[in-house]
Amino acid sequence: MALNFENNHYYTDEGCFITLSDGRTTTTHTHDFLEIVYVFSGSSLQIVDGTEYTASAGDLLFINLGSSHSFTCSKRFSYANIILKPEFINSALLGTDNAFSLLELEDFRELKEKVDRTSLLAHLSPEECGRFEALIDLAISEQKADEAGKEVMLRSAFNALLTFTFRKMSLPIRKNDGIGDRLLDSIRLNCTQHISIEKLAADNHYNPTYFSRLFKAKTGQTFTEYVISCRLELAARLLKETELSVSDICLEVGFSNRTKFFKEFSKKYELSPLKYRKNTGR
């Protein structure tokens, strides 16, 4: 393996390889290859282009060419680093600076319109973990081998790893998956408190990224937008039904910033809180 590092940038002359690593922390860097991180055990906070992802056992994280990347991890963190230059799969991609160019290839035609290019983190079921780890083992055994057809085998193994990853980045929401009304009622009842989507996802046995997709599909809003909407509905009710001051209501419904409260309320109801109260009879 020839992996070089200079000026916070990793680069390699090899077309593909996989390394197995234990926990360590990396500072912010970029690289000239596609990196797929597969987590065997433990957890880590991965930051890709400024966005934070919590990657735990059974998770895949897709990191594009040129993306900024850093992470901190638990002591028991272990993972596979799957490194690929797109031109190894097809020489026509030589010089590309975007790994999603792979989706233009005929081999990935079926997935081209399905891959969510913003959903970089995916969670594998136990059965899927077994299949993915078998592909990793195959690729590692081939990169260690010195036999005829080695490059063909490696290309096939990495094609399979890519296809598996793209599938997981384009999973449709299954009919038996979803956000139930009971959960939404619970969020509404507790909207004045700090609610972490990571904890909510964990409590309901979901990966946070996938949970966010389910939530948006169910409600038409992001989790944050939904919580804010619930708080504003409560504020509107308090303005109509109580004599609490606007400042007290702002704090009562969970806003620590009065300016943000006024802005969000005016955007939703097209009136300031004071005018809303006046128009509703208080």
Give descriptors for this structure:
elongated, 10 helices, six-stranded mixed β-sheet, alpha+beta, 11 strands, 282 residues, single chain, five-stranded antiparallel β-sheet
Spans of at least 5 consecutive residues whose pLDDT stays below 50 are none
Find the structural class using helix and strand composition: alpha+beta
Number of discrete helical segments:
10
| Strand order across the largest sheet | 1-2-4-9-6-7
Series of H and E elements: EEEEEEEEEEHEHHHHHHHHH
Shape: elongated
Mean pLDDT: 89
- Please tally the β strands and state the result: 11
Biggest β-sheet, characterized?
Answer: 6 strands, mixed
Give an account of the 3D structure.
With 282 residues, the protein is of the alpha+beta class. 41% of the residues lie in helices and 22% in strands. The chain has ten helices and eleven strands. It has helices at residues 86-89, 126-144, 150-168, 181-189, 197-203, 208-219, 223-241, 246-252, 258-269, 273-279; strands at residues 3-6, 9-12, 16-22, 26-31, 34-41, 43-48, 51-56, 59-63, 69-73, 78-84, 121-123. Strands 1-2-4-9-6-7 form a six-stranded mixed β-sheet, with no helix packed on it. Strands 3-10-5-8-11 form a five-stranded antiparallel β-sheet, covered by helices on one side. Strand 1 (3-6) and strand 2 (9-12) form a beta hairpin. The longest helix is centred in the middle third of the chain and has 19 residues, at 126-144. The radius of gyration is 24 Å and the shape is elongated. The chain starts with a strand and ends with a helix.
